[in-house]
Amino acid sequence: MDLSDNLAGIVERVGQRVVAVHGRRRLPSSGVIWRHGVVVTAAHTLRHEDGIKVTLSDNRTVAAVLAGQDTGTDLAVLKLDGIEIDPVESGDAGSLKAGHLVLAVARADGLGASADFGVVGAVGGPWRTWRGGQLDAFVRLDGGLRPGFSGAALADMRGQVVGICTSALARGAGMLIPATTVARVTDELLTKGHVSRGYLGVGTQPVELSEAWIKKMALSSDRGLLIVSLATNGPAEKAGILIGDVLIAMNDEPCRDFDDLHAVLSAERVGQPLKITLIRGGERQECAVILGERPQRNACR
What span, in angstroms and rounded, lies between the C-alpha atoms of 138 and 125? Predict the structure, then answer.
């Protein structure tokens, strides 16, 4: 009974700071009051930018204004006017271990707070999502999320919210967006409405390099990135990069896959020259690209 009562108490406390977000048709998603007048939710659940509403724990439904969203980390920030509800108590996702018990607390079905009890499936260090966002820790939940639980608060057994849940960052599994990532991205979205990232303006796919190329150019890796598309007037096109080139290094560091490419495209490098090493027509070439800032809603890197 002690465990059961403890879990129910956590759901009750956290549930007061969890809202239903009406940003799509049919089933709403969940959101968390992260700061006074500020709600965070999963960006992929918002199907429109205007007319968003949230339902609070006292069943009031109020208008929300989208301050910004970041598809890379799957976070969106909403602002509420005149709502004085204390935010959640945030915890440290870095303290989680595989097998730890956690509670996902949602509000999406009109029945009040909902809970899903489970365990942490796997943990790791900082990682980049397939959308290019940087998360401060890798935390995979044991199993997928139930409908409406994207944007839900994930609480540890002390009742601290270690982040919010999303189903958009790993196929078939629920993932955690750590509290430190939520805080960092929220700051940037509230300040300027988007998250800055470096931008080359290329579409790529991994390729294996031939043994002849590896020997001829004394390459340290057998993989590179084939340029399959170029954004018109993007940094790469302006620098003379062509479709069919194979990208093998940036600033003399091997570029073997998407993770290597994303690692270079940091906000701090925007406006700075980037040394590109590539293979064109079987020959090694170099060029300099001035890294741009990634346009919003652009699929190119």
Answer: 6
- Provide the CATH topology of domain 198-293: Pdz3 Domain (2.30.42)
Which of 150, 245, 260, 262 is the catalytic position? 150
Catalytic site residue from 22, 29, 74, 156 = 74
Are 186 and 77 a contacting pair, CB within 8 Å? yes
Among 44, 136, 245, 260, the active-site one is: 44
pTM to 2 decimal places? 0.81
State in Å, rounded, how far the first CA of the chain is from the last one.
52
Q: What is the dihedral of CA 193, 130, 38, 63, to 10 degrees?
A: 80
What pLDDT, in 10s, does the model give residues 128-152?
Answer: 888 778 899 999 999 889 999 999 9
Whether 74 is catalytic: yes
pLDDT digits (tens, 9 = 90+) for 231-271: 999 999 999 999 999 999 999 999 998 888 888 887 788 89
**Strand, coil or helix: 183:** helix
Fold topology of 2-192: Thrombin, subunit H (2.40.10)
Known catalytic membership, residue 222:
no
